[in-house]
Design goal:
alpha+beta; 2 domains; two-stranded antiparallel sheet
Length: 200
Amino acid sequence: MSINRSLWLQSYKEEAIPDWICPACSLGILRPVKNSFHTAWDSYSEQTNNTPNFEHEVVQFRYIVMLQCNNEKCREGVVSAGEGKFVPKLHYDNKGQQELLFIDTFTPQYFVPPLCIFQIPAECPEAVARHIRSSFKLFFSDPPASANYIRKTVGAILTSKGINQYSYPKGKQITIKLHDRIVEFEKSKPETAKKLFAIK
């Protein structure tokens, strides 16, 4: 279950969209549909444009783009939206003179349908896979919430392995702490339990 980290950790330029894998077929690459990339500056950037207070570094804008799988047997469509800004870059012209350019740079926040950050194994229990898919939805827009869903998979994994979620002292249902459940699981699968502790 490897992850190509370079696809998820970088902002990008319009002409250099990352090779995101299609979430439908997992084979094709998502490519921008012609003339579907649209941007709009935020209110403050619009108001200060063409004024003495204008600074490229503080410009913020929004973008939306339609992507399509290049696998002819799939052709899934994906919408992406996010934020953008100008990033300064030093450049030398053909006379060797240094000049400062500002490059449009985009950071995705949403994909519909969500991208698969990694492939979920076919044998993965549905209760576990459901939490993983939920984490994918929030991966770009809310990383802490995305991580919470990954942590929820720990409990789902333990349940799928037959580790009790509840105890019933005197007939009363009590939720067993996740830590205690991992400790119980550790008795039979110590190496796997170490990984669950790390995720927890």
